[in-house]
Batch of 3 targets.
Target 1
Amino acid sequence: MKKALITGITGQDGSYLTEFLLKKGYEVWGIIRRSSSFHTGRIDHLYKDPHDMPRLKLVYGDMTDGTNLSALMNEIKPDEVYNLAAQSHVRVSFDMPIYTVNADALGTLRLLEAIRSSNRAVKFYQASSSEMYGKVVEIPQTEKTPFYPRSPYACAKAYSFWQTLNYREAYGLFACNGILFNHESPRRGETFVTRKITRGATRIKCCLQEKLYLGNLEAKRDWGYAGDYIEAMWLMLQQDKPDDFVIATGESHSVKEFLEEVFSHLDLDWKKYVEIDSRYFRPSEVELLQGDASKAKKILGWEPKVTFKALAKMMTDADMKTAGDEKILKEQRQ
Ligand code: NAP
Ligand code: GDD
């Protein structure tokens, strides 16, 4: 039985990847951080399935603790490591640049060193990001497009990209960078713009809130579905040789377009409910991202399945159910 170790297992991608690998017959180990409250909500359902439970194991760890990562590597002896852990919020990285770089850049190096010193043939996936393209120098962005990072988060991810490539070239490690463009789902964190919009719009529809406060509505992103993207991570590690791949839909849409999609699905006019709040603007913005995933299509046979429209609908429908439940609970309390 193949063994995979996932950092960031409690996050959006970690939860989808865990489901995917368990279905493929893997034993999955996940690193979780100690917290004063439960934060395994995205993977709790996997423990309820008697087939999955014995093959899913959680251990404590942190990307800022290299000794712990080394000990885990020696204890678990994984065949594949997926490094998904990160302080992944771009706006927050301006408030916490040192921590972000510690976890997202040095954390990757700590993990790479833990793998190298374990002297085992481990395959490594690094969650690289389209944010590295930042102030884009060409449209669309490919594996050959130079980086121009615009935030502490993006600088940290660029560092990790190069370290991953360096460990591949210097030590022959099977290490791949997936340069993933934005990908969303009903499990997306609620402070990222798509989920903030679907949560806000559905709560407005259920009379649970009156306004939705947002920042730059003109920014454009290449938005795909997380469930599609995690398969590309796995495919990269099943190839004969390690390489780097852009994973994207090839389409770019503005925040405004996403708003229109969601509010019109709920028969609402977003202009009546959305207010601009300067707190949500960034000191330096990434105005446009649009990826070209032809290399992934050619070599991995990977293509996105869920369209922009279907993604907005999927997220809105899921949040409509949550808002409906919230409304019932509120009425029962009154
Ligand atoms: P996410 O939902 O924010 O999940 C991040 C995960 O990292 C969580 O499990 C979090 O644990 C964990 N984590 C954070 N700091 C940590 C630390 N110091 N030590 C150990 N674990 C830590 O992110 P996501 O959307 O799933 O993204 C997964 C990865 O892909 C991230 O590296 C992200 O930067 C990258 N990425 C994401 C996208 C996207 O559009 N989603 C695109 C490109 C790249 P807690 O639950 O304890 O907070
Ligand atoms: N979060 C947020 N909140 N973003 C807003 C808001 C708001 O209220 N209003 C407008 N935006 C704009 C941001 O300025 C940005 O241009 C765009 O919406 C998307 O913001 P996020 O959803 O926070 O995502 P991101 O593109 O900054 O970063 C995500 O994608 C990256 C890949 O390109 C994250 O998942 C990163 O971890 C990931 O690497």
Target 2
Amino acid sequence: MPERILVVDFGSQFTQLIARRIREANVFCEIRPPEALAEGLRGEPPKGVVLSGGPSSVYGEGAPELDRKLLSFGVPVLGICYGMQLLALGAGGAVRPGKREYGRASLRVHDSGDLFHGFGGEPVQVWCSHGDHVDEPPPGFETLASTPDLPVAAFRMAGRPVYGVQFHPEVAHTPRGAEILRNFLFRICGCSSDWTPGAFAARAVEQIREAVGGEACIAGLSGGVDSAVAAALVHRAVGDGLTCVFVDTGLLRKGERALVERTFRGRLGTRLVVVDAATEFLDALQGVAEPERKRRIIGERFVRVFERIARDLGSQARFLVQGTLYPDVIESMSSGGPSAVIKTHHNVGGLPDDMDFELVEPLRDLFKDEVRRLGRELGLDDAVVGRHPFPGPGLAIRVLGPVSEDRLAVLREADAIFLEEIEAAGLYDDIWQAFAALLPVRSVGVMGDARTYENVVALRAVTSTDGMTADWYPFEAAFLRRVSARIVNEVAGVNRVAYDVSSKPPSTIEWE
Ligand code: XMP
């Protein structure tokens, strides 16, 4: 068991970012809800506890509280924003409600001892997002830093490793925030950077074995990095108990099935079953235009196919392995979760209630870049690890509006040209994801002196580190001109090409 930090989630939209920053320092951390704090402190105690921010006011009705026992364990504590306010309140101090402060602030450090080691001198930029704040250090606490609007931007309990910061060290807009967190981890908690992809793999393998026992598992393999890494982990855990299934949904890109077969057959060390289910997916999608319905239909079809395969194999496979990542979970979660529903990812909210499987989702807490590191650790080829993400619902959510074989065929050709040109220009690895979408409108054009009234293709290419935020890729004009000319000339039925210059947020990466 690696050393661990416990992150207590009071509902902040940044809780996962805190966890990421900690893991980037190669320290393992777990996120727990406030009710599970006592349980999280049992057994081998964590090296430290971080209390996240949250949307509540400490005085609000039903606001989450801090288990007072925490301070009696003697473990180092860092409260961030709401977490700091809870510490202040628990120590008999006051929290001043209602003074909203969002955005950048200039932090002056008064004590560059442990938490702010290396921060003497000039003020540094920090980022705030709070309604309430602490005006005076509670009894027994001392002020470590302040901003023009916050007399107590950071405090410490005298003689104890208990700290609070009112700003958010975990966000990118606090440029030296990672340093503050590292000071907490290494100077205050005494952590030793022992959490690496190798350590994660070993732990995940152990947990999978425990969950699955000796039973058979089926892994849906899409050809993308997530499902490949999930399958590789489960294969390590259960060996021949795993069967990988690649479903040809009829919603794949040009040449995808052949590529996946070539890449994976005989490579993962497991059986690979390829299922042709195009007719059943397309029939189920007939006339469906609404993106959420498309995802649900596809999520259910996948499960039905897997159930059938499990029966055909004569195995009693009870477990279905999915490469679900943390962003899929966040964006699919409804109220009560940390954020609003953005899209019901087909493999999360799109699953039928009556399915025969229990899920094995070893990557559910990871972001894509972490999965890629893990994939390398597991020895997967760079070609697999570095592939652009491709959503499970495939081209169904890139043919906007109702899906048909004809429209899929048009999209497939346009998309293949775009990707071919990106590879030829040596840009593939600079881009997080690139694809074409077929818009549900027709436009007027003129070709060979005649009027045309045909399809519009939108091209989308973005940069990102985890798919949660993204920016459009700034191709050179000559590149776009070349791709546009090729698509209009080579793909029958397209007379216009548009390039999507929207970031996420406010747009999303996929159009549906
Ligand atoms: P959005 O469009 O939400 O996409 O900005 C973020 C990332 O998730 C992929 N995506 C999906 N993947 N099932 C998946 O497996 C889905 O339903 C789904 N919707 C979006 C998208 O391609 C991008 O990489």
Target 3
Amino acid sequence: MALNNSRTLRDKILKARELILSSEYVVVLTGAGISAESGVPTFRGSDGIWRNYNAMELATPEAFNTNPKLVWEFYLWRRRLIASCNPNPAHYALVKLEQKVPFFTLITQNVDGLHHKAGSKNVLEIHGNLWRVRCTRCGRNEYDTKTEMDVPPRCDSCGGILRPDVVWFGETLSTDVLSEAINSLKKADILLIVGTSGVVEPAASFGMIARQDGAFVIEVNLEKTPRSGFYNLTITGKAGEVLPQIVG
Ligand code: BV8
Ligand code: ZN
């Protein structure tokens, strides 16, 4: 059985490699699982951060309005954790893939910034970025790399409270970023979905959108997800091991 599994896995990887490297337009959707081998905890896995914190308590506008200090302590804790994490072979494989195919879009649900750190260029951060802040009063938006600060921080221009520039539960995604992502899914020949549990909307429906518009959808995940049955090819394995074999 084990031999069969490894041969099946090898065959699936070779099939994915052949399809992806011969495609005109490749879109990749990543979730927390691609950063797991960098040491960034996933959301829903056994070591998941939502285990220690309740997302609905902290990653929501209501939580921030009620207790901005607590929500900022949660984000500072994540910044400190992520500051020492580096991209892993899966991130670097996607940098290489972007250079190998004519058209490429990387859609990420992650807010850790590791795709940029690895060198990916065309990245749509649909849930924002942990290293960016936005003023709740004047809308001023800027990056900062602080892991220690008085919270909640205040805007230099207007004194308004700054918030993490991420999309919380119950908040809509930026319409520009979302329509750019949807457009890329409609044009995609291949959609490669890596390391997401397929729970959070609207990203969870991206595989269906691409499939309905004729894309071949490949999923790479440690385990089957609720969406695996809708996809053309599912490869079970670690992103950091599978992606470098697909991209070469
Ligand atoms: C919205 C930023 C309009 C903050 C995050 C329709 C139906 C049902 C519910 C809704 C719906 N529309 C809206 C909702 C509500 C909500 C939602 O989806 N709730 C869920 C919980 C049901 N969605 C929203 O509110 C969205 N807004 O749609 O606006 C609207 C609004 C209200 C009402 C209607 C419409 C906004 C969602 C954005 C939330 N913000 N992050 C922050 O990070 O602090 S989401 C958060 O979850 C992260 O961004 C994360 O990326 C994302 C998804 O999680 P995953 O990435 O999938 O991570 P997870 O841990 O779950 O899975 C990891 C996977 O990796 C696992 O499968 C594991 O097996 C695998 N893995 C692990 N290691 C590896 C691996 N794979 C490969 N290799 C490995 N080594
Ligand atoms: Zn301001």
